[in-house]
Every structure is written in C-alpha cells, then in structure tokens.
Design a protein that fits this description.
The complex is a heterodimer of chains A (111) and B (114). Chain A has 111 residues and is mainly beta. Helix content of chain A is 0%, strand content 52%. In chain A, strand 9 and strand 10 (99-101) form a beta hairpin. The chains are: A mainly beta (111), B mainly beta (114).
C-alpha cells in the first residue's frame, strides 16, 4: 500500500464549479499534512497546511480526519488559473522534516 | 517562505558524462536540504537528505556513489549525477526546510541524457 494515495483524476470541471480531492495516508503517526500545487514542468508550491480543526483560505478548504487517516481539499468557484496538479503531502514515518508526496490529482478548469 | 534557486534550470548531456546541479538557499540558512526526482507523470520521490557539514542520507534504492551530494555551507548543496545514462533523465528538485515542517522548493533542473 502506498504511504499516500490520492484520487487518480483527471478532473475536468467548468469554471465556477466546486471540486473536491481526497487523500488517504497509511502512517497513523504522521503529524504534518499539506496540499501542494504543481503546474506543468514547474516545482511544487505550498497551497496550504492542513490542521486537525480544518482550515480555510479563500476558496480553498482543507479537512483532516485522523481517525480515518483522510485528508480532503475543496475548491469553490473554480477559476481557470486553478488548473494544475494537486499533491497531497504527509510527513514521513519517524521524521518530522521528510515529506512523502501523493501521486497527484490533475485538475483542468474549462471555460 | 525561503527563496531557493537551482542551477542550471535545464541541461542536456551525453551518456557517460557527469552533471552537477546546485541548490542555493538565498535568504535562509539551511542545515538540511532535500533532493527529489520526478519522472514524467509521477510524483516527487525523495532521493536523499543533505546535511550541512556531514554525509547525506540516501533513500533505499538510490546509489550514493552515483548521486554525489555535497552540502559544504548553509546556503549551498550540490548534487552530481556521475556517469549519467538516459534512464537518469528526470526533473531534479531540491528543497529547503523552513522553521516548521514546511518545505520550499527550488525551480528544478530538467536533465536530459542522450
């Protein structure tokens, strides 16, 4: 089983749609959780950290369910510029600084 | 967040040659840097953890004699791909750990080995 698993995608949605991405992780001792965004042929960029209480940043909402080892990202009112690959990232077993990346979910927002 | 640069941004080389990639932390003293590799349509895979002033820690399956890492200062880590072969063609990305568990990534180096 992969340490971090994501929806395979791709997701193709119209502008203005709401889209949700899911992610599960296998290490129950993981402490840090993130969503990164990666544009084609570019480096990943931090979108947001994910906290136990859930957190929101504008149109983006992240949720964490430790009992189910499940992380989600909700994007509301999607924009063309949201088109990218979204990476679910978890800190690795036994190490607070080493990250494990999911394989990513590709989102294309259509005009 | 930390500003990280990489050089070169892309390189094409012949099979059998060695290629050095530099990773610089421009505004943050980084005792630890990370090197990742990403093949097309795959996610980032950690290759090694680079520790300033000491030996790097390599992930399982990554040959330390092929991927030489030097982290001689708090702002510079280098990755040298020795005797590169076409299967080493990939996107190499370094990152710097921030004050929390967040990491900040360099823009990456695209290596093509002919």
């Amino acid at each position: 089983r992969k340490e971090v698993e994501q929806d395979p995608g791709p997701f193709n949605v119209p502008e203005g749609a709401t889209v949700a991405f899911n992610c599960t992780y296998s290490n129950s001792a993981s402490q840090s959780f993130f969503w990164y965004r990666q544009d084609c042929r570019k480096e990943p960029k931090l979108l947001m950290s994910v906290y136990s209480s859930g957190n929101e940043d504008g149109r983006f909402t992240a949720q964490l369910n430790r009992a189910s080892q499940y992380i989600s990202l909700l994007i509301r009112d999607s924009k063309l510029s949201d088109s990218a690959t979204y990476l679910c990232v978890v800190n690795r077993r036994g190490s607070a600084r080493q990250l494990t990346f999911g394989s990513g979910t590709q989102l294309t927002v259509l005009p | 967040g930390a500003v990280v640069s990489q050089h070169p941004s892309w390189v094409i080389c012949k099979s059998g040659t060695s290629v050095k990639i530099e990773c610089r932390s421009l505004d943050f003293q980084a005792t630890t840097m990370f090197w990742y590799r990403q093949f097309p349509k795959q996610s980032l895979m950690l290759m090694a953890t680079s520790n300033e002033g000491s030996k790097a820690t390599y992930e399982q399956g990554v040959e330390k004699d092929k991927f030489l890492i030097n982290h001689a200062s708090l702002t510079l880590s280098t990755l040298t791909v020795t005797s590169a072969h076409p299967e080493d063609s990939s996107f190499y990305i370094c990152s710097v750990g921030g004050h929390t568990d967040t990491q900040y990534f360099g823009p990456g180096t695209r290596l093509t080995v002919l």
